[in-house]
Amino acid sequence: MTTQAGPDAGARGETAQPTPDVVEGPRGVPLLGNLPEFGKNPLAFFEQLRGRGDFVRWRFGSKPCLFIAHPDNVGELLTEVERTFDQPDLGIAFRTLLGNGVIVSKGADWRRKRSLVQPSVRPKQVRSYAATMTECAVALADRWTDGQQVDVKKEMAALTQLVAVRTIFGVDTAADAEAIGQAMDVAQKEIGAEFSGLGAVLPDWVPTPGRARIKRATAVIDAEVSRVVSQHRDGETERPDLLSRLLAARDESGVSLSDQEIRDETVTLYIGGHETTSSTLVWAWYLLSRNPRVRDALAEELDRVLADHEPGYDDYASLAYTQAVIKETLRLYPTIWLITGLAKEGATLGGMPVPVGTRVWSSQWATQRDPRWYGDAEAFRPERWLETDDSPAEEIPEYAWFPFGGGPRVCLGTRFALVEAVLVLAVLSRRYHLDLTPDEVLPVPSLTLQPDREVLATVRARV
User: pLDDT by residue (tens digit) across 242-278?
Assistant: First the structure.
């Protein structure tokens, strides 16, 4: 490393910062750069880049890119978005589904939308949704029987769809959940295929079968959202769901969200409340089935804290080990596995200027499995997050764990997703263990990190 400091660093009493060593990534191919290798296995590709260094140059098609792995630099990227890093275009498939919602909007438009959406997912509001989360989980637990064979992926998807439909839309019919859920599955798959395949470098106007499929899926979602919005507008009574709060929201000028904005934010909240939690729960069951010691420790806490009552929002803080199970699951299988930023004028990382237009990439998958920050990094060990009489919690750097992003654009639904995952896992684990088949399940990076196959299990009633 070399040393670099500003002209007045000594006057300020600052220590000169070392200039990062930037290394070259794997050799790419003409026109496509490293896209073929990235598209084949994005997770392995980012782990390969991490093995080369904390700053690695590569090319996404013809676009110059910089991969960063160190938590300090990840934190710089996340906290400087909206100032020296911009939100990049994530492609036509992503825009087709999410429109211009709070995830993809920029500048003043993003600040306005965030101020309108944020009140609907604050802790006070999440508290009001917790009862619905528990009720839906209890209904599923009542349907399960000892020895029953289940597809965990389908079971968790149906459960979190129902929670999302109830809390976001305020409706409770299977048709709503099924229609939206099936369309979301198609859209998510096509976004992943577009992002990591040839579609990533094709102009928006080029028609492809995948782009046609995501348009059809989005049309189904739009029709369902439009129908439910119309029902809400025609209603005369105040409703407690997220959609009603969005319809009632007003910005500083007294202006409400337009119908298109309502649609975009509703879809964004649905993905945050359903897709991320469903995936997290599937991976949690997968890990618990393979780690009986952790499963027993989880059961012990649930018996001790909950005794004979179902968990509610007030129990959340007391379920420390259950929270640690979810946190450790998100470390090993982060639902959102990739964050990017586009360098603007004045962008720096680690004291090094980043050229305007450089696309900077960070991966939760790569950083959160880095043995520099985690002891026995590949092991499922919830205790690493807990301070106990026997051992302290691991000293994990800030931004070595960032499954929900961070900085000003941290996911608005973080609290909702964590509370839902903990309450659902608590309800079901009080009554049952799930013994999964010994087949290895591999992660597939699409819009979220999904299992590559059915996740089959036998339901075992706890004695």
Answer: 888 888 888 888 888 888 888 888 888 877 777 789 9
**Structural contact between residues 52 and 60, judged by C-beta atoms closer than 8 angstroms:** no
Residue 189 has pLDDT above 60, yes or no: yes
Taking the model in full, what pTM does it have?
A: 0.89
Rg of the Cα atoms in the chain = 23
Q: Element (H or E) spanning 339, and its range?
A: strand 339-343
Q: What is d(CA 165, CA 163) in angstroms, rounded to the nearest whole number?
A: 6
Mean pLDDT check: name the lowest of 6-15, 70-79, 118-127, 264-273: 6-15
Q: Which residues contact 340 (CB under 8 A, 6 or more apart)?
A: 88, 90, 359, 360, 361, 362
Determine phi and psi for 43, rounding to 5 degrees: -65, -45
Q: How deeply is 420 buried, as exposed, middle or buried, from its count of CB atoms within 10 A (0-12, 13-18, 19+)?
A: buried
- Beta-bridge partner residues of 459: 434
Alpha-carbon separation of residue 84 from 118, 404, 450 (angstroms): 24, 21, 32
Burial degree of 264 (CB within 10 A; 0-12, 13-18, 19+)? buried
- Phi then psi for residue 63, to 5 deg, are -90, 130
